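Journal club prep — side note

Before the paper discussion, L.F. wants everyone to see what a predicted structure for a comparable chain looks like in token form. Sequence:
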Amino acid sequence: MFQTRLTKMLGIEYPIIQGGMLWLSGAELTAAVSNAGGLGILSSATFPEKETLRAEIRRTRQMTDKPFGVNIPLLPAIKPLDVYGLIEAIAEEGVRVVETAGRSPEEYLPLLKKNGIKVMHKVTSVRFARKAEAIGCDMVVIDGFECAGHPGEEDVSSLVLLPAAVDAVSIPVIASGGFADGRGLIAALALGAEGILMGTRFMVSREAPMHMKIKEYLTGLPETETTLVLRSLRNSARVIKNSVSSRVLEIEKQGATIEELLPLVSGKKEKELMDTGDLEIGLLHCGQVVGLIRDIPAVAEIINNIIAQATEVRKRLQLQH
């Protein structure tokens, strides 16, 4: 049921992928998603050294015998990742799926391909999807404007961006941004996607290592409670509205430099927020789909509910036809 090119390529039961979320995507969450039939993804930015990533991969293997992947962000950073070292650890530990995001992964594709690793590259526009296919990526994740994290600068929603990308490339397209339930899965498949990637929905799960106070807060938010920061630097990020995001926007209007913004937008501040439950410590990346999330179930419940609802929607549409 709901088998696509993606499920066959990755060896998974359902076309559902967990986004690689900094601080959250460790062994527990990754293994839970894979055990439930999706594809869990470890965040290498959370385990940025070759040996720490290797240790987390091994820890994940102790929790699941199902396929999982590793996310490698190719984004500007104060301390750039040792991408070649991370890829070596990934290959040596037998992981066969890598998700990249940010700049082009072309430099690393020969090493990835040499080790039999499938590459899904995350993009925010049709032209970048074409480029990903042209350089040899196996799959492309298309991020709609609704997404958490970095939605790009073109402000095109998934409803338009997804089918445009599907029309533009022949490799499997994975929908990201605005997906949290079975209705979204059916919509994505109807628009030509081979599956969905979810971050915010899995962030609000029992297995996500984030303070319960934050999870409970998110279940009460409407879809209007996110905002975009760092637009002045052309590095837009979607986050929850709070005092920190308001301050960032205020000083951006004043022409703030990245050095002036760093104390407010530091990832370490987000980690502290997640650990302590203090919503006003830093920024919290979150998608507009938070407005559809009203509970904090286990990962297996999330995936089972998505498939059950998608099955009901499909039956209803067939009856109407």
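L.F.'s comment for the group: The beta strands are 16-18, 40-43, 68-74, 97-102, 118-123, 139-143, 173-176, 195-198, 226-229, 237-240. Keep this in mind when we get to the figures.
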